[in-house]
User: Fold this.
Amino acid sequence: MPGETRKLRAWPIVLGTLVALSSLVPGTVAADSASSTKERASQLSKQNADLAGRSRSALLGLYALDSKLAREQARLVALRIRTAEIHAERAAAQQRLTVARHSLRVAQVALARRLQLLYEQGDSDPLAVVLGASTVDEALSSLDSLDRLADQDRLVIEQTRKAKQQLTRITRALAKRQLELQGLTDQAAQSTLQLEQARAERSSYLASLASQRRLNAAAISSLQQQALAVETRSRQLTAVASGRPALTIDPGLGGRTLTVTATGYAIKGRTATGAPTGWGIVAVDPSVIPLGTRMTIPGYGSGVAADTGAAVRGATIDLWFPSLAQARACGRRTLTITLH
Assistant:
C-alpha cells in the first residue's frame, strides 16, 4: 500500500536465479552470437539482392525469347501456308499435264486414222487427186482440203506438245519449290522447338531463383528473431550483473515486456502523483518503470504508473483494487506485463 513498508520476498530468489544463469552464459558470448546471427542475415540479404538482379536479367532474357519464339512461330505458319499453296498448284499443274498428255495421244491417234483412211481411199497422193478430179476446181478443192486437214492436225499436235512441255517445266519448278519450302519449314520447326526448350529452361531458372529468394527471406526472418532473442537475453544478463531488472521487446505485442512481482492495495485518496486512486492505478519503482508509463497487466487489464510506495522496489508493482478483499485475493504473484 502507498506509504506502507512492503517486504520483498520473491525478488532475492529471482535475482539469485538470474545471477546463476549469467554465470552459465557470459554476456560476451551472447553478444558474439547476436553479431554472427546478424552477419549471417546480412549475407543472406546481399544474396537476395544478387538473386533479384539475376532474376531481372533472366526475365529480360525470357521476354527476348518470347519475342523470338513468336516471330519464329509466325514464320513457321507462313511457310506451312505457302507449302500448302505450292502443293495445290503442283497438283493442279499435274492434272493439266495429264490432260495435255491425253489430248496429245488423242490427236496422234486421230491423225493416224485419217492418214490411214486417205491411204485406203487413194486420196493421199496429190497427183492422184489431180488425175482423179473431173474438173480443175474439183482438183484444187481436194488439194486445199488435204492441206487444211494436215495443218489442223499439225497445229493440234504442236499446241499439245508445247502445253505438255510447259506444264512439265511448271511441275518440276513447283516440285523444287515445294522441296525448298519443306526444308525451310523443317528448319523453322527445329528453331521453334529449340526456342521453346530455351524458354522452358529460363522459366525453370526464374522459378528456382524465386524459390531461393523465398527460402532466404524465411531464413533472414528467423535469424532476425534469433538475434533479437539473443540481444534480449544479453540485456537481461547485463541488468542482473548491475542489480537492475531488464526490459525486453516483445514484437508480437508491440511493446516492452517486464517480469514483475504484483501485489494489491485498496487505500482511497491521492496517489504520489496527486491523482485520485482508482482502478488502473499502479504503484511502481520509478527507477524501473517511469511514472506515467502505460501498461497491460494479465488478469487486471490496462494500468498506468501513477503511485509509489516504500515497499515497492525493483521489479515490483502494486495494483489498486476497490476493496480490501479484492486486494488480498490478488496476493503476491509473478506476472509478465507489457509497457507501452
User: Anything to note?
Assistant: The longest strand covers residues 255-265. The CA atoms of residues 294 and 340 lie 5 Å apart.
